[in-house]
Write a structure and sequence with these properties.
12 helices; alpha/beta; elongated; D-Maltodextrin-Binding Protein, domain 2; two-stranded parallel sheet
Length: about 350
C-alpha cells in the first residue's frame, strides 16, 4: 500500500506551523480539553462538525487500529496526519480483515476496529460478553469494483446474474466462453477477497445472495494490492475489490460496468457519482469504524475520533473513497457527541 502522505509535504507543513504558532488548519478546529487535560464530556461536536476553537493542548498516548483492508487507507492517512500534528501520539494501523479486527476488538486489544460491513450479531455478543462497549460510526462510502486486465477487449460489462453464475459455490464456469459464446475459449483466472474480509462478506451477499457463499478455486487475499498485481498480470483474469484500489491503479486495470438486472444494456460503471447516488448497485456500501467506548475517556483518542469526522474527512476523497452525504456525516458526529457526553 503506497503512503498517501509525502514527507516533503509534512516537512513544509511543520515549518509553517512552527512559524505561525497555531494549529495546522486556519479554521482552528482542533478539539479542546479541560484545564485538567481530560476531554470535555459536554463538548458537542457541533452542527458544522468542528469543535469550538480553544488553546491547543499537546496530546500523548497510543491508538491501536486494525481490521478492514478497505478502510485501512483512510485510517492510515488520518493517523499519519494526526501524528504529525500531535507528535507524542502514536497511531498504529493494521489491516488483518474486518472479521479478525472485530475479534481483536471484542478481546479489548484495539481502540478502533475498521470494518467494511456492519458488525454481526455474534461479534456484538462477543463484545457484550467481554464488557466492551462500542460506538458505531459510518465514515465513508465505497463501491466494490469488478476488474479485468487492460488487454481484455471483449468484456465491457457483466450482469449480476452472470457474476452469480461465476462466483456461486457450485459454479461450473471455467472459461470466458461459458459466460458468453462470443468470448474467448480461455480459462478465467479469478482473484477476490479472503474469507476473513468484510469485502468477501459483502460481495457474496450482494452477488450470490448469501454471505460467505462462494466458489473456492480462486486466489484470495486480504491485501488488495496482491489482487491488483494478479489481475494486471494475466490477460484472462477477473477480480473484485474496493473502488479505491482500482482508482489508484487505473493504468493496470480495466473496470467493468455492472447491471443489477438481467439486461447488460442497463449496466452502470462505478464512479464517485454513481456510488454516492446509489445508481451503481448492488455493490455500493458504507464503511465504518467501531470505537471502544471505554477508550474514549482518553483525551488523545477522543480528539482523534473527532478529527476523523471533521478536518480528517478531507482524506476520504484523497485516498479515492466517496465522502458521506452531509446528513449522514452530521448523524455520525451527533452519535460521537452523545457517546462523549455519557
Amino acid at each position: 500500500m503506497p503512503l498517501f502522505l509525502k514527507r516533503t509535504f509534512w516537512l513544509s507543513l511543520l515549518i509553517a506551523v512552527q512559524a505561525v504558532g497555531c494549529s495546522v488548519r486556519e479554521s482552528g478546529s482542533e478539539p479542546a480539553a479541560n484545564s485538567n487535560g481530560s476531554a470535555s464530556k459536554n463538548e458537542a461536536v457541533g452542527e458544522s462538525g468542528a469543535a469550538k476553537s480553544k488553546p491547543a493542548v499537546e496530546l500523548s498516548g497510543k491508538i491501536t487500529i486494525n481490521g478492514s483492508s478497505t478502510v485501512f487507507p483512510i485510517s492510515q492517512a488520518m493517523g499519519e496526519e494526526f501524528m504529525n500534528i500531535h507528535k507524542t501520539v502514536d497511531v498504529s494501523v493494521g489491516e488483518s480483515g474486518t472479521g479478525p479486527g472485530l475479534k481483536l476488538f471484542a478481546e479489548g486489544k484495539l481502540d478502533i476496529a475498521d470494518a467494511s460491513r456492519p458488525i454481526k450479531p455474534a461479534e456484538a455478543d462477543a463484545c457484550k460478553a467481554a464488557n466492551v462497549e462500542y460506538v458505531e460510526l459510518k465514515v465513508a462510502i465505497d463501491g466494490l469494483s469488478v476488474v479485468v486486465n487492460p488487454e481484455n477487449d471483449w468484456c465491457q460489462a457483466l450482469t449480476v446474474a452472470q457474476l452469480k453464475a461465476l462466483w456461486s459455490p457450485d459454479s461450473k464456469i471455467k472459461k470466458w466462453k461459458e459466460l458468453n459464446d462470443a468470448w474467448p475459449d480461455e480459462a478465467i483466472d479469478l482473484y477476490g477477497a479472503d474469507h476473513a474480509s468484510g469485502t468477501f462478506d459483502y460481495f457474496t451477499e450482494a452477488i450470490v445472495g448469501k454471505s460467505k457463499s462462494s466458489r473456492t478455486d480462486y486466489t484470495p487475499s486480504t491485501d488488495d494490492n496482491v489482487l491488483v498485481k494478479g489481475v494486471s498480470g494475466n490477460k484472462f483474469s477477473l477480480g473484485y475489490f474496493g473502488y479505491a484500489y482500482y482508482a489508484e491503479n487505473k493504468s493496470k486495470l480495466k473496470i467493468l460496468s455492472i447491471a443489477a438486472g438481467d439486461d447488460v444494456a442497463t449496466a452502470v460503471a462505478p464512479t464517485e457519482a454513481t456510488i454516492l447516488d446509489g445508481t451503481y448497485k448492488p455493490l455500493s456500501r458504507p464503511l465504518y469504524i467501531y470505537v471502544n467506548k471505554g477508550s474514549l475517556k482518553n483525551l488523545h483518542l477522543a480528539e482523534f475520533v473527532k478529527y476523523y469526522l471533521n478536518d480528517g474527512q478531507s482524506w476520504v476523497k484523497t485516498v479515492r473513497y466517496v465522502q458521506l452525504p452531509a446528513a449522514e456525516l452530521d448523524a455520525a458526529r451527533k452519535t460521537l457527541s452523545e457517546a462523549l457526553a455519557n
